[in-house]
Amino acid sequence: MPKQTEKRARGRPASIDKTEILEAATQAFWRLGYDGASLGELTKATGVSRPTLYAAFGDKDALFDAALDHYAKTTGAAPAHAFAEATDIRAAVTAFLTVSAEGNTKIDAPSGCLIACCAALTAETTPLLKTKLQKQTQELTAFLSARFAREVARGALSERPTPEARAVLLGDFMRAQAVRARSGASRAEVLSELSTRVEAVLA
């Protein structure tokens, strides 16, 4: 639970660690979902009062938006980093799905994915959130497509399916794994058919 970083000085509120509070709020949204993470649950998780939470991040929607950005830059970014660092395309696709599954099944974190399993449920009734998720999906597809296109250019992959089609399929597999994990599947169960998914992307 986040703690205030300084003792209260006379006439002034104690300073807070916004990064620590945001991490705690992200975990709460990830575990409970947007609707389940009431302001009471959020203040309990972050260890700060409602006025302090509002002053630091704004309302619940703004806090959720900040939590999504925080997740996307930390846990959510790990699969893409693994994909970029792998030396060959088969290793890249394997690493992408493996690291994603590992992030979905940590012992010390909620299961599944904050974006795929929680934010997506709220997007239908929240236009700004839907737009945000669509942009994130498009950016991921473009990132993956660029690598697949380079592999086609050097002869490591066939031109069909197109690089974009491969990227979309890989992203869909990642989200499907997250949903399975959220539904109670273990890491071993999520990864049990990994080679089949890799082959489908590289076909």
TrEMBL record:
Residue numbers of the DNA-binding region are 38-57
Q: What is this protein called?
A: TetR/AcrR family transcriptional regulator
What does the UniProt keyword field contain? DNA-binding, Transcription, Transcription regulation
The UniProt entry, under PROSITE patterns, shows: HTH_TETR_1, HTH_TETR_2
**Cited PANTHER family:** HTH-TYPE TRANSCRIPTIONAL REGULATOR YJDC, TRANSCRIPTIONAL REGULATORY PROTEIN
Where on the tree of life does the source sit, at the highest rank?
Bacteria
Q: What residues does the HTH tetR-type domain cover?
A: 15-75
Q: Tell me a Gene Ontology molecular-function term this record carries.
A: DNA binding
Tell me the Pfam families matching this sequence: TetR_N (PF00440)
Q: Give the organism the record lists.
A: Roseobacter insulae
- Tell me yes or no: is ATP-binding among this UniProt entry's keywords: no
